[in-house]
Amino acid sequence: MSTWSSGYNTDLGYTFGYYREISPEWLDFVALSKLVTPPAGDWRYLELGCGQGYGLLLLAALNPEHDFFGIDFNPVHISHARNLATAAGLTNVRFEEADFTALATDWPADWGQFDYITAHGIYSWLQPEVCAAIVQLMNHASRAGALVYLSYNALPAWFSSHPIQHLMRLWQTTESLESVKAIETGIRRLEKLTEAQTGMTRMLPGMKAMLDKVAKHDRAYLVQEYLHDNWHPRWFDQVVEEVKPAKLTYVGTASMGDLFLRSFMPQKFKDIVQDYTDPIVQEVMIDTLVNQSFRRDVFSRGATPMWTAQRQQAMLQQSFVLLNRPPADDELKFKTSIGELKGKAEIYNLFYDQLATGPKTAQELMQVPASQPLGLGDMMQALSFMLNEGHIGFYRPPSDRGPALALNRAIAIATANGAPYRFAIASKLGHVVTVSDVDLMLLTATFDQPQGSATELGTALVERLLALGKGLSQQGKPLTKREDLLPYATQLAETFLQKTLPQWREYGVCE
Ligand SMILES: C[S@@+](CC[C@H](N)C(=O)[O-])C[C@H]1O[C@@H](n2cnc3c(N)ncnc32)[C@H](O)[C@@H]1O
């Protein structure tokens, strides 16, 4: 554990993630649904604890006319983020290495104020004093009307998993275990405890299911989740109290499947919630009903009201694009905290049919069930389900696609050099999409050989893989030798040329 980290584990660099919930359009949708005015005009965006900065770079490239700013105290993260920004030539994003505690009392005036502030995956793992510093910092850094996103491990669900964190960290510190070893050892020992059906594991039956999930997770994530000195899941009402000094009030959840949970939860849940008048207590009661484990809360500094007619106008103009249409013969199911909800296929398929012909506004979609056009509330709920499933996305292509294309190129080149990146920008949709390392390597091969055949690109892929000491897996069978790799790599290049590359061109992942 480093001396500068206030108990925060810095043994491994963090993962290179992208979280759609912190994108401005996602936060705007939450605000609109709750009649709160989203930021407009010359807005600025700040991410606290930006990690490797990968997600922030994608957002910056998608919004080249706005300022983006990332803060993290880990120099490994900041230098990675700056290097990738430089490689892509992005000029609207800045990364600073700084500690929240220092910034709480000394917020540099020239960093200015922001209209969006996000802190994803941080708040539960810090000392209470550092959390208080984050709130102070938010107070200095937010403009009136700003939307602030804070995610955290929530109670009550984490009660049953509390021993996993405590014991893993105890074993690590007392036995001086290196972090990944501590995770492996911890999983083994905890599994032994559940198998032995100890008093504790019998009292906490949820622990076994959590442990099964833990065993499958990425090790870098697990180190960040479980091996900090601090680990404080919270009740929603505690967080609401904690952020009050920054003048923040609750707007709604960025967990999109639950945005309208109050309207579709079972009547017996509604009856329980109705026993309470305070909306914060009601929210806590909902967390107990669904056994909430993770909250993505959106707050506002000043919650500027949006009048009903204004909201209607703003909402109707929003455009959406089809990303992954669910198979037509599948039952339509939408994930929410109360389980999967069935969607009326006859209605949703009409939306998907319309969207299959190109992006559509909410107004256009509302007219689709021609015999019975939907009201705005029903339409927003339907959109929230489809967005949450990733069936559709917000359609907001940047006015200048240059930065997004440049970032994608830098991402592809870095991946061909071994970087573990898995997201790129569909610049014609204004959206982030997942991509595979093999496809990114094949894309870089086309930079050198624009007219390259499948055999030529396949050969280039094999050379890349061998240089990185990597292989391929064909139906679970590992391939590592050149002669074994070549036929399969050629097959992958064929698919890339016929399917992936044309689709990437259509979406604007590349030119
Ligand atoms: C779990 S990571 C989340 C990173 C990113 N938000 C994401 O979701 O991918 C938390 C980040 O907070 C940073 N951090 C922790 N304590 C901090 C502090 N006191 N000041 C600044 N950054 C801090 C860590 O370096 C780490 O990158």
Description:
The chain has 511 residues and is an alpha/beta fold. The protein folds into 4 domains: 20-155 and 233-301, Vaccinia Virus protein VP39 (Rossmann fold); 157-221; 317-394, Outer Surface Protein A, domain 3; 402-507, no CATH class. The protein has 22 helices and 16 strands. The protein has helices spanning 24-33, 54-62, 75-88, 100-105, 128-141, 162-175, 179-195, 199-203, 206-216, 219-226, 236-242, 261-264, 267-274, 279-290, 308-317, 345-356, 362-366, 376-389, 402-416, 437-448, 454-467, 482-507, and strands at residues 44-48, 67-72, 93-97, 114-119, 142-153, 248-253, 294-301, 319-322, 333-336, 339-342, 360-361, 392-394, 423-426, 431-434, 472-474, 477-479. It has a 7-stranded mixed sheet with strand order 3-2-1-4-5-7-6, with helices on both faces. Helix 2 runs antiparallel to helix 19 (402-416). The chain starts with 23 loop residues before the first helix and ends with a helix. The chain binds S-adenosylmethionine (SAM). The site of S-adenosylmethionine (SAM) has 21 residues, from helix 4.
Helices, strands, pairings?
Blueprint: H1 24-33, E1 44-48, H2 54-62, E2 67-72, H3 75-88, E3 93-97, H4 100-105, E4 114-119, H5 128-141, E5 142-153, H6 162-175, H7 179-195, H8 199-203, H9 206-216, H10 219-226, H11 236-242, E6 248-253, H12 261-264, H13 267-274, H14 279-290, E7 294-301, H15 308-317, E8 319-322, E9 333-336, E10 339-342, H16 345-356, E11 360-361, H17 362-366, H18 376-389, E12 392-394, H19 402-416, E13 423-426, E14 431-434, H20 437-448, H21 454-467, E15 472-474, E16 477-479, H22 482-507
Parallel strand pairs: 1-2, 1-4, 2-3, 4-5
Antiparallel strand pairs: 5-7, 6-7, 8-11, 8-12, 9-10, 13-14, 15-16
Bound molecules: S-adenosylmethionine.
